[in-house]
Amino acid sequence: MRPREDGTEGGLGQGSARGAAALMLLLPATMFHLLLVARSGPARLLGPPPYLPGLEELWSPRSLLLWFAWLGLQAALYLLPAHKVAEGQELKDKSRLQYPINGFQALVLTALLLGLGVLAGLPLGALPEMLLPLAFAATLIAFIFSLLLYLKSQVAPASALAPGGNSGNPIYDFFVGRELNPRIHFLDFKYFCELRPGLIGWVLINLALLMQEAELRGSPSLAMWLVNGFQLLYVGDALWYEEAVLTTMDITHDGFGFMLVFGDLAWVPFTYSLQAQFLLHHPQALGLPMASAICLINAVGYYIFRGANSQKNTFRKNPSDPRVADLKTISTATGRQLLVSGWWGMVRHPNYLGDLIMALAWSLPCGASHLLPYFYLLYFTALLVHREARDERQCLQKYGLAWREYCQCVPYRIVPYIY
Ligand code: NDP
After folding, report:
1. CA 22 – ligand 1 centroid, Å
2. Helix or strand run (H / E) with residue 124
3. Given Cys at both, which of 204, 227, 341, 351 links 345, Cβ 3.0 to 4.6 Å?
């Protein structure tokens, strides 16, 4: 795409609009396929779904109400006083937006409220039975919310538009998102959706699956504990280091359209909980030695993931911080520097490597009898390879020769000596 004078990218081919339209059908279809297959006996990832659910199985006003209650609760927790208010990256008009840092607090308060609810008789273990209508409600909300965002973007000033998503083709723009940071007062929709309802919803669904397994079999299996523990660590980490999301591509570069709205509200909670869904219907025996080895794999992945992300964030916040001051760097024409030693001297995306190692550890407790629980690993590899290529293009555009020099010093993208 060609950059326009206002800094957005125009000149879209018909193929991109068709691709966007296809993805808007394909992503929800894949999510429903996974939900149906996970509970079926053969649990075949690549086969047809066991049956096609009718509208009466998908549509339930109760599920829609539950979603609104959930979104309302998370929005209320977002608006509670935060111990810190962070500033985002500088925008085109030189201003910086403010964001509350209280995501971890929202997770803890949600856990407390749910704990009280369960003590008072809230049937959390019944949630797994409602996954299909809940996913349907999330999909409906994603379409309607994206439409409202698209309409809102029509009255946004040019300086508020994202670099992509402003091709003039309504289907493509609806999908990719026109406005960079749509918000009403302090409620920033993209920042809110990225880390709250979907991510906390994901671990809530996992917990409900664990509770239903305990009801069915007397106690949760070791495999279910591991999947719950690993994914809770991941979500807890994302919320603990919430401020780091402000420098990710999703926040600094991408518009807020159907791609992110559906991803945040539907795809994450309903497909990232696939391993726990699978385990509920296909229990796996897991011995202690194997469980210990899987924990070790997750720990290695987490160590790389956290080390790399923290190193870059510390460096971007303050390059003279003693924790990063000794690292080698390359200067760029923009005045920013690139790390060329430490984690970022090993490969060009060490954080992706750690994330992929963890993805493997999340699937291994599900055994080797089915491909289905490895869906996340396969999908995530494709996503990160594509994301890495997108980031490389942007960095080349931003840093030019300095980026080429960095690529020469650090030739591998994600996996040392392999890719
Ligand atoms: P990164 O956090 O990797 O950010 C990429 C940016 O980092 C570049 O654009 C550049 O921006 C900066 N950068 C790149 N190389 C260097 C260097 N050598 N020195 C200093 N800065 C550098 O990208 P993402 O937003 O894609 O990922 C953030 C995290 O989120 C990752 O851990 C990823 O695995 C995870 N993730 C998880 C997903 C999930 O669904 N579970 C989905 C997507 C991501 P600049 O120079 O402008 O600072």
Report:
1. 27
2. none
3. 341
